[in-house]
Amino acid sequence: MAADAAPDNGVVRPEEVAILAGGCFWGMEELLRAIPGVLDTDVGYTGGWLEHPTYHDTHDSKSGHAESVRIVFDPTVLSYETLLEDWFFRMHDPTTANRQGNDIGTQYRSAIFYTTEAQRETAERVKARVQSSGLWAKPIVTEIVPEARWWSAEGYHQDYLRKNPGGYSCHYMR
User: Fold this and answer.
1) pLDDT in tens, 17-54
2) Are 130 and 29 in contact (CB under 8 A)?
3) Domain, as residue range, for 67
4) pLDDT beyond 90 at 142
5) How many domains are there within the chain?
6) CA 63 to centroid of chain Cα atoms
7) 2/72 Cα distance (integer angstroms)
8) Do the domain assignments include residue 7?
């Protein structure tokens, strides 16, 4: 799960957590893990009402959860603002409600689950800036909501595209 990184030689690095949803978590994880400053990724479910959800539970909008990626990153290398503006809003289509490519349902919604008030403010500012940039012709529908309970996905979903290099992904940098 951890991004490829040099040994830390006992140096404690600052860490921040971002929780992002933008369609199938397999493709998002694969793009996110390659970003300099990303230390670790975990795919899972958040934002719903069902306790201990499984992959099966998230489909057909049965649990309210979004397929999401929990990203641990070093803010001295990668700012939250850069993570959102240069990566998140470019790796999926934030203008389609509950859909990415052929994947349809509330589990594929675009959402930012902020962990601090500073993250909320940054997310709102970046969303407005991206909307006015002209990159997306339609309105951005990305939800910006407080973090919810995190449920890690089953083991076979972790690092899925590394284990299955020919696997499906609708994510690419736009």
Assistant:
1) 999 999 999 999 999 999 999 999 999 999 999 999 99
2) no
3) 16-163
4) yes
5) 1
6) 18
7) 9
8) no
Task: Judge whether 169 lies within some domain.
Answer: no
pLDDT digit string, tens, across residues 105-134 = 999 999 999 999 999 999 999 999 999 999
Percentage of the chain modeled with pLDDT above 90: 77
The C-alpha atoms of residue 141 and residue 5 are separated, in whole angstroms, by 34
Q: Is residue 1 part of a domain?
A: no
**CATH code (residue 73):** 3.30.1060.10
Amino acid at 85: E
Give dist(CA 83, CA 79) in Å, integer. 6
pLDDT of residue 8: 58
The pair of three-digit structure tokens given for residue 125, joined into one six-digit string: 């500012």
**22 in helix, strand or coil?**
strand
Q: Is 24 a catalytic residue?
A: yes
Catalytic residue among 3, 24, 78, 153, which? 24
